Amino acid sequence: MLFTPLLALATYAAAAPAGAGLSLSLSSTSKSTPVTASATATSSTSAAAAPSPTMAYASDDPNYSYLDQYQSGTPEPIIGAAGANILGPQNIPLERQSPDFMAPPTTDSGSVENVKWPMAISHNRVQDGGWARQQNEHDVPLATAMAGVNMRLKAGAIREMHWHVTAEWGYVIAGSCRVNVVDQLGRNYLADVYPGDLWYFPQGIPHSIQGLDDTADGCEFLLVLDDGSFSEDSTFLLTDWMAHVPKEVLAKNFRVNASAFDHIPGEQLWIFPSAVPTESVASANPVSPQGQALLPYTFAASKAPATNVTGGSVKVVDSRTFNVSTTIAVAEVTVVPGGIRELHWHPTQPEWTFYL
């Protein structure tokens, strides 16, 4: 890979502040020779003793990664003369991905809660038409502010109309899809999105997603929810709701004969196959007496220019450019080989990162 693209998300979108950077340039004499101060005695008192450091200087150990070394051999927790080989069983593929766990740098101090999670070991819910896997605070207890879902829909397949108490932010990884939204006033919104594009559905807003076939067989996308306890298995589904409402109540509510509901599903569909839409968004968008939604729920971030910097590029989208996205902001960062995202931190917002 020639570069490392990643998404860094924060749970605040209004004029999201940049992370505070730290850059130090030091020049000193040799660390092994402390500077000695001397003074001419002005009385019978002898000269003051030379100062000495109160603790050892920081190590000059470069702490090179064992990543390359582990790819061609058996990972072992050996650092120079320290450590020893493993006599028991090993999970070599996983150890090769986590060299800093196996042979931690000398700068490590104390214990830190787990801060990363591979989607590859998340439980995958597979159905006719697609699949989804997730990461929430059950996997990473530290991640209380955001949860993530990686979902795939085949062409035509639909993630059925649903809603939840958390806001949903979406990023198209590959392919294309059509999103459908009905806001709290009954206004409709329909749009097609492509790789690098975004959507945002505020909490409680019903929405659905359908895979298209104009660029690939459906789509794959990343969802980020602004609550670490979110579960993709606990959303409020339209089919599940209707399956638990007596048909005579449905008939009276919609002012039709009860037989109109003879073929509704007896349980939730969640993801299900369907035909690929043939109409354009303009033709397919339903006409509502309430009109169209005022704010767009999608943003063509793929067409927004990135800012090139030394070591890579960055593209930031927050509520200043994507007005409806009030709880989540994103920085799409590309780091070239040898580049570094400089040391920084966020005083008030957490960060959730996904590597592409």
Q: Output the helix-strand order.
A: EEHEEHHEEEEEEEEEEEHHEHEEEEEE
Rg on CA atoms, Å: 28 Å
Return residue spans where pLDDT drops below 50 for at least 5 consecutive residues.
13-43
Give the strand order of the largest sheet, numbering strands 1, 2, ... along the chain.
5-6-7-14-9-12-17
- N-end to C-end Cα span: 11 Å
Q: How helical, in percent, are the residues?
A: under 10%
Q: Output the CATH topology of the domain at 125-303.
A: Jelly Rolls
Spatial shape: elongated
User: What would CATH call the architecture of the domain at 125-303?
Assistant: Sandwich
Percent of sequence in beta strands: 25-35%
CATH class value of the domain at 125-303:
Mainly Beta
EC number: 4.1.1.2
Protein name: Oxalate decarboxylase
Domain Cupin type-1: 127-262
Binding site for Mn(2+) 1: 162, 164, 168, 207
Brief synopsis:
By secondary structure, the protein is mainly beta.
